[in-house]
Write a structure and sequence with these properties.
With 278 residues, the protein is of the alpha/beta class. The protein has helices at 20-24, 46-56, 78-90, 120-137, 159-170, 178-188, 192-197, 229-242, 258-277; strands at residues 11-14, 33-37, 61-64, 96-99, 102-105, 108-114, 141-144, 173-177, 204-210, 213-214, 219-220, 246-250. It has an eight-stranded parallel barrel, surrounded by six helices. Helix 4 (120-137) packs across helix 5 (159-170) and helix 8 crosses helix 9. It binds fe (ii) ion. Fe (ii) ion is lined by residues 144, 177, 180, 208, 210, 250.
Length: 278
């Protein structure tokens, strides 16, 4: 199948308020692109929008949301989706992503990215909803694998097969979070390389890298620490399989000064270069 994914934008970061000024001044151009958290910019005016407009003058922007709740049985929030479309058009977002999860039901939002049951009926449900979203946005959506700490008794397939079925039948793209794959592989005891092998190459348009917390029996996806060694190793395997894919580091807690994240991003760059050459 011909690849439908866009060529790699290179190495980017999540745009965080702590780094706005550095990204515009002392470290302008230090990353190839920025990922903006959709929900922070939906309300017109104010400081975040002011900065996003300035950042957009220097960087390609992609939008990453947490509120779509594509897996829920509640109706899609059309007002939210229209807001996302307006934002994407306004900033000429290179792409729009959200998570393959549900965040609530019956109008209750738990603000958590809850895992899906990996069943055929859930595939059909999500495929139909992604179709609605893509029609409204006028573009393919990227969906991201979430980390999880439980699985459902009724699961009918492994996570990677669920992700592949959804991506191919909805004709959408994938944001593979390498840390989430690793975290879930430890929590559920599966082989993360089998996960990578199960994902169709031509649909992977973005990678996330992030840190997690080790609680002994479980790993928790906390985004508050540097990327862990096994995740770097898995990232190397991911590049070997998927080639050059737009890659970024997500950091949401204990946010260090920008140069520290740039050093981490240098490591991603160097792994990707040597992995592809191998
Ligand atoms: Fe992620």
């Amino acid at each position: 199948m011909t690849s439908i994914r866009q060529p790699s934008l290179g190495f980017g970061l999540g745009a965080r308020p702590d780094h706005y000024e550095d990204l515009l001044n002392d470290h302008r151009g230090s990353v190839a692109w920025l990922e903006a958290l959709t929900e922070n910019y939906l309300v017109p005016g104010g400081r975040p929008v002011h900065y996003l407009e300035r950042l957009r003058n220097h960087y390609p922007i992609v939008l990453h949301g947490v509120s779509l709740s594509i897996g829920s049985t509640d109706s899609l929030d059309l007002e939210y989706l229209h807001g996302v479309k307006t934002l994407a058009d306004r900033y000429e977002a290179a792409w729009v992503s959200d998570h393959l999860c549900w965040t609530g039901v019956d109008g209750i939002n738990v603000h958590d990215l809850l895992p899906m049951p990996f069943t055929e009926s859930a595939v059909r449900h999500v495929v139909q909803r992604i179709g609605q979203v893509q029609e409204l946005l006028g573009r393919r959506l990227l969906i991201e694998n979430v980390s999880s700490y439980l699985s459902f008794i009724g699961d009918e397939m492994p996570e990677w097969e669920f992700l592949r079925e959804v991506a191919e039948r909805a004709d959408c793209l994938l944001l593979l979070d390498v840390n989430n794959i690793y975290v879930s592989s430890v929590n559920h005891g599966f082989d993360p390389l089998a996960y990578l092998r199960g994902i169709p190459i031509e649909r992977v348009q973005q990678f996330h890298l992030a840190g997690h917390s080790n609680l002994g029996r479980y790993l928790i996806d906390t985004h508050d620490a540097p990327v862990a060694e096994p995740v770097w190793q898995l990232f190397r395997s991911a590049v070997e399989r998927f080639g050059q894919v737009s890659t970024m580091i997500e950091r949401d807690g204990n946010i260090p000064a920008l140069p520290e994240l740039l050093t981490e991003l240098d490591r991603a760059r160097s792994i990707a270069t040597t992995a592809e050459a191998a």
